[in-house]
Design goal:
Elements (H helix, E strand, L loop, with lengths): L4 E2 L20 H4 L8 E2 L3 E2 L16 E2 L1 H4 L26 H28 L18 H18 L2 H7 L2 H12 L5 E10 L7 E11 L5 E21 L5 E2 L5 E15 L10 E6 L4 H21 L1
Parallel strand pairs: 3-4
Antiparallel strand pairs: 1-2, 5-7, 6-7, 7-8, 7-9, 9-10
Helix pairs in contact: 4-5
Length: about 300
């Protein structure tokens, strides 16, 4: 496995719970699936046809054809080609790769805008004569992400499973609840947001898009998704309640952290009214090699799906 997706603060997630595998019904129709754990990768298929060449590895490894047939339904999925692009300063230095990465970045942005515009057009009761029913509410994504980020971090520290259940997707909740259960008894954790960091750049929306995901009953679920990048300074402190609540020596830590938080909300297929945002997890910043492999593996899956359909 290559780079792993952090879904919460590593200093709150200790010790590490066992990995739980969750799979998607069809990466072609509904995108990417994740493996939920304290670190969640993004596998893709790397089927390339009869030519025996070494498949590209995505940032999270590759998925064999036999695995695709065993993908289970009813999953929370990441929409295809979601991109957390690096700044230009971290683009590849080679001119060809730099140009290709810029093209992939612009293409991903154009794709996300096109899907939103297309859905708005589809949601019009009368073409050209009525307003679209669907609204992405992009301006609300950043304040919502900041609020959910604070709620999730505080709930993790306090062991508040009810709050986590209400703001996280089911798979993420299961992982975080397992982490809470695995903590040593008698240890109390306190979390504080010291301040937001790098205000000249963050918070910002790194990616936004809409898409459909198939359900076990054959219907399609409409989702909107936003990736919000947040830079912050956080403090975590542990206390030993078995000793009268004294601070555990050396447990207080202050960290500068940047998180690319993924939010998802289901949208009604008829009224186009959105449900509340939930936290899917977080993503790492893409590299040229990892994102190119992601895109090519998705295309390979589409070709394979076309051949078998």
């Amino acid at each position: 496995m290559a780079d792993l997706i952090r879904i919460s603060r590593p200093w709150l997630l200790s010790p590490r719970p066992p990995r739980l595998q969750w799979r998607a019904p069809s990466p072609i129709l509904c995108g990417l699936y994740r493996t939920i754990s304290t670190t969640a990768p993004r596998p893709y298929a790397a089927k390339r046809g009869p030519k025996k060449t070494k498949p590209l590895k995505s940032r999270s490894g590759s998925l064999k054809k036999d695995d695709i047939s065993q993908l289970q339904p009813n999953m929370t999925l990441l929409l295809p080609e979601t991109l957390v692009a690096p700044p230009l300063s971290r683009y590849p230095r080679q001119p060809t790769k730099f140009a290709q990465m810029l093209w992939l970045h612009l293409r991903a942005r154009a794709q996300s805008i096109w899907t939103v515009v297309s859905l708005k057009a589809t949601s019009q009761p009368k073409i050209f004569t009525s307003r679209p029913l669907f609204k992405f509410h992009k301006s609300a994504a950043i304040p919502t992400a900041k609020a959910l980020h604070v709620q999730m971090s505080a709930a993790m520290a306090h062991g508040d499973k009810d709050t986590l259940r209400s703001i996280c997707t089911p798979e993420l909740f299961m992982t975080l609840a397992s982490t809470i259960d695995s903590r040593p008894k008698g240890t109390r954790v306190e979390w504080d947001l010291v301040r937001y960091d790098k205000r000249w750049r963050y918070p910002r929306i790194a990616d936004w898009r809409v898409g459909y995901q198939p359900q076990p009953d054959g219907s399609m679920r409409l989702l909107k998704q936003a990736v919000v990048s947040i830079a912050s300074v956080q403090r975590i402190t542990r206390y030993d309640d078995a000793k009268g609540g004294v601070k555990i020596p050396g447990s207080e830590r202050v960290r500068h952290m940047t998180k690319h938080l993924v939010l998802q909300a289901e949208v009604d297929n008829v009224t186009y009214e959105p449900h509340p945002w939930h936290i899917w997890g977080s993503l790492s910043e893409a590299t040229y090699e990892s994102y190119k492999a992601d895109v090519e593996n998705i295309r390979a899956l589409m070709v394979e799906q076309t051949k078998t359909s």
